[in-house]
Amino acid sequence: MDVSFYFNFFLLTQVADLETLGQGGEEMGGLCRPLQASMVWLAVLLLLLVETVNTAQEFDPYRVLGLTKSASQAEVKKVYKRLVREWHPDKNNDPGAEDMFIKITKSYEILGNVERRANYDRYGQMEENKQDQHQQGFNRHFHNSFYFDESFFNFPRSGRDFSDSKYLLDHAGFNSKVLPDSFKRPYLIKITSEWCFACVHIEPVWRETVQELEPLGVGIGIVDIGYERRLANQLGVHRTPSILGVVNGRVTVFHYSVVREHLRQFVEDLLPPRLVEKVTDKNYVSFLGSWHVENNPSVLLFDQVPAVPLLYKLTAFAFKDYVRFGYVDQGLTETSRLLHQFNINSYAPTMLLFKENTEQPADIIQAKGMKRQIMEEFVSNNKYLCVPRLVNQRLFDELCPVKQFHRRRKYCVLLITGEEPGFVPGNQAFLTFASSNTKDVLRFTYVYQRQQQPLCQALLHNQAPLFAQVVILERRSPGGKAVYRSVIGGWNGSDDDKTRLHEQLELLQRDPSYLSYDATLPELNNELAPMFLIQWINAAYDYFLQIYDDLLFSNWREMMPILSLVFSALFILFGTVIIQAFSDSGEEKPPQKPKNPPNTDDSPGRANTSSRPPKKDFVEVTELTNITYISNLVKLRPGHINVVVVLTDASKNALLRKYAKEVFSFSGTQTLHFSFLNADKHSQWMPSLLESCPTAARALAHGEEEEEEGGGGREGDEHSSSSPFSGRPRDFTGHVLALNGHKKYFCLFRPVFTGDTDTGGESSSSSSSSFDEGSRRKSRSRSRSQSSSRSRSREEGGSSGRGGRGGGRASRATSLEVHHKLDRLGLWMERLMEGTLPRHSVPGWPGLDTTSPSSSPAPQN
């Protein structure tokens, strides 16, 4: 005998004493009635406490199922099924069968879930189980001990009984079953808990709604918030009772009064608005003829009800990816011609299914009471066209499945055709052939070559056929492995083509090894995929609709995380702006450093003129080759300029050093790129560029004529009547171009020295030196002071040493001349950054020559 027996006996004696005291109290004028009521309530509370402790010690799910803690999940499930069949109240007449059945169900809810079982084994009795057992134990023991009816304290039991157990949802089941299935049918879910008094009041309406909507195809679920806290948090519901709707993975809360009509309307509102189209005499031709674009059959339901039946909407939602649905109201005068054309009986609902032939339905069904199973079977058997077009990988997997060992072979007869009008007769002939050769092992399909180029290239070996092709294939593995064979001669729909295809199909059924070629098929393009912008708009619409519902119904608990995130982002944004504003106003600008006078001729005289300091201590200079030409010039980003210096193999080292020093102060600008072009490798590029831009050629020729006249005029007389670019080879060493690849223009820098650099021998040394003397004088008059001083010293040193080593002195002088070609490049770069240089436009950039043409011979005197 346990403690509760003695405690119950004690309470019974106290209640008996209180009744005697109450009877005596009546004789005393009712003075003891308050004391009697207080003692009764105290006894009830004490009994509640004792039963809580007692039931917590009594309930053990392992003992209820007769298992040990080492039992596996398979054993738990097996024992649960056996006990449920044994103790089901409909099959067991034992008075305690219902209580035992509830115990078995609760035990399986704990042990059948791996997470709950681990928590129970680790921590013992869980709080929700304690609460449930406490409520059940209190109700059972209190009723058995005192024989009180449930209406004694007006405390009704929860509306959930053993019949609701099949609708119970847990977190894993909701995410693995309900959410994926919600894309095919809507779900109506009730949130409840034990001893929920308001849940009892809506229970009759809930039962009637379930009995009405479940046969139509609506999914039903019940979530016990006391057991499934995690699932309740995921659904965003924290109070009972609540009713939710789930469709397409989206959860919607029901906010109106719980009436059957409101719940039915709530389910209809969950469905997409344009599932079923109203069809009349005016639009039925376009509705049935849209199979070309939609690539789906069409179903018409004829009925006398003005509104579309909910059963038909639910069927349309289940097959929305396969079939188009239309509804014809027989009571309207606008549908009389449609009823007469298809000879519709107005006494019973009728469904017509159309495929490629819009004049004659492919299937028909008529029944007085249209049931859900009949509708779904009717649509499921006709959810593909006779010759459907492969528009995505899902349809390809369904029509041409992978070969299974335990199933019959299935072959896919694929027509590779085009969308042009010239292919229409052949496509129609292929449809006629497929309609007359319907077999379970054959599936006729077609693709547009322009839409599915990877698939067509894999089957046709990268060939572009001028006419349609027929390919018979069988898929062997999900990875894309397939065997196939093309029908010789192509396909134009003639009788010979039909005979040839029929013979090969017959041969294939007799000898499966007829498909002798294998290939790896790529995944098909999804032709029906919406654009990213449309997906983004739909997601934004759903998001704002959810926010509107939360604001409308004051669901502040779910809104708090979103509002907190928004206000935090705004606070950070404005805080950053304010801090930046104060820091900018209070920041003192650093004093500008005075320009140091240059010490040497080689240092860049305008190193501090750039507004942005260089990020590196060197300049990256890239050579223009056939590999880098496209990226560094032709496809240069808008707003970017490539500064290119032209040089030769002999002058490469000297010019690159001088070029790097002159442009170093501008290397911090991100829109400037620096390159060099080897004229020995690509000698025809500069002439081609100048020929495409006459203004630049004239400016260059005019400058050279001025220099030649200043240098002595001997060669100006010789070439005064001819073009400056004809009759003699060009030397563009030291020229610099600022190329804008996007806008197709360039700015030209002409070097300081433009004389010959021939150091061939003693015979030409005198003329060369005389020309160099004039060039040096011209250079000294136009270069900077430090450059002129160094040039003068070099000239003096070179002239004082003329003698037996004239060739070496001429070589050193030539090196110095090449070095000074870029003396004024820094000033030119400043004008480039200011935008004051003349721009020469070209129609297009010439290509680089991989080989240099042979140099032309010198003109004969």
From TrEMBL:
Region span, Disordered: 585-615, 697-729, 757-817, 837-861
GO cellular component: endoplasmic reticulum membrane
Protein name as it appears in the record: DnaJ homolog subfamily C member 16
Keyword Glycoprotein in record: yes
Ranges of compositional bias, category Polar residues: 600-612, 849-861
Alphabetical keyword list: Autophagy, Glycoprotein
Domain J: 60-124
Biased amino acid composition, Basic and acidic residues: 711-720
Bias kind Low complexity: ranges: 757-772
Source species of the chain: Hucho hucho (huchen)
Role description: Plays an important role in regulating the size of autophagosomes during the formation process.
Subcellular localization: Endoplasmic reticulum membrane
